[in-house]
Design goal:
- By secondary structure, this protein is α+β, with helices and mostly antiparallel strands.
- It is 24% helix and 35% strand.
- It has 2 domains: 125 residues, minor pseudopilin epsh fold; 108 residues, Immunoglobulin-like.
């Protein structure tokens, strides 16, 4: 006579207990998951705005005309100056942006404390401004540009206001034979949950590849640093073929200009 093997199974009581434990864990984790989701939306909104400002600055320099970012009730839009009128850019990157439902935008120019617009000029400068995004739950995030030569940055924590860490973002603008590098140190602004101590300005050795800048095979070049008062300082560097090595120090924003030796300053300021 064959012996039947005993089959193991869960009882109804055990299944009910497991489901009760799972529901309890989900109930405890729900607030954290909700906060993570809202934080992701906030990061997406600010990242899209920063991308729009960088694109407007780049287009203004390359096309030699003023670009404008205008705040609206639904969000914001970009426009390019054409004579006495403002027209919508052809690129999809210039399309109007709508904020999530219930969100608001408050834009204030720092020069006169008024206006709901930011102008980007062919010189690579823009109107200093403060942009506040207010979520439907009352939380807010601030994006600001304190000087015309700076890029916009997110300002979320006291550490982000007082100094910068090592999160760098580089924008490249082309102006004839010259390349303009806008180097922005966003610090902890992109990580709202990071409340650690600030590490101050970013300093280190960097490598500039001339081939990536479209300057491969260029003759003698020079690298200049331009401060917020338009004062120009030469940057020492060591070049080997198309690779230049130099020292970089960024406390918020730094602007470099790379071009033919003896002509870079003239092209940068006068075109």
């Amino acid at each position: 006579m064959k012996r039947q093997r005993r089959k193991c199974a869960f009882t109804l009581l055990e299944l009910v207990l497991v489901m009760g434990i799972v529901c309890t864990v989900l109930a405890l984790a729900a607030p954290s998951l909700r906060g993570w989701s809202r934080g992701a939306v906030m990061n997406a909104v600010t990242a899209e705005f920063l991308a729009a400002t960088r694109w407007a600055r780049t287009q203004s320099v390359s096309e030699c005309r003023v670009y404008r970012l205008q705040a609206t009730e639904e969000g914001y839009l970009l426009a390019a100056q054409e004579g006495q009128e403002w027209v919508e850019p052809d690129s999809s990157l210039g399309r109007p942006r709508a904020l999530p439902a219930g969100w608001r935008i408050q834009l204030t120019r720092l020069s006169d404390g008024s206006g709901a617009m930011i102008d980007f000029y062919p010189t690579g400068r823009c109107d200093p401004a403060r942009v506040l995004f207010i979520a439907d739950d009352g939380r807010s995030v601030e994006v600001r540009c304190d000087t015309p030569a700076e890029g916009f940055r997110v300002d979320l924590t006291p550490a982000a206001r007082m100094g910068r860490t090592s999160w760098l973002d580089v924008s490249v603008f082309e102006k004839g034979p010259v390349r303009i590098l806008g180097i922005q140190d966003y610090g902890r602004a992109r990580v709202p949950t990071d409340q650690g101590p600030d590490r101050g300005p970013w300093r280190g050795n960097v490598t500039v590849n001339l081939k990536n800048l479209g300057l491969s095979g260029a003759g003698r070049i020079e690298i200049l640093r331009v401060d917020e008062r338009f004062r120009v300082y030469p940057v020492p560097f060591v070049r080997r073929r198309d690779v230049c090595r130099c020292r970089l120090s960024v406390d918020g924003f730094s602007e470099w200009v790379i071009g033919p030796a003896g002509r870079t300053r003239e092209v940068f300021f006068y075109g």
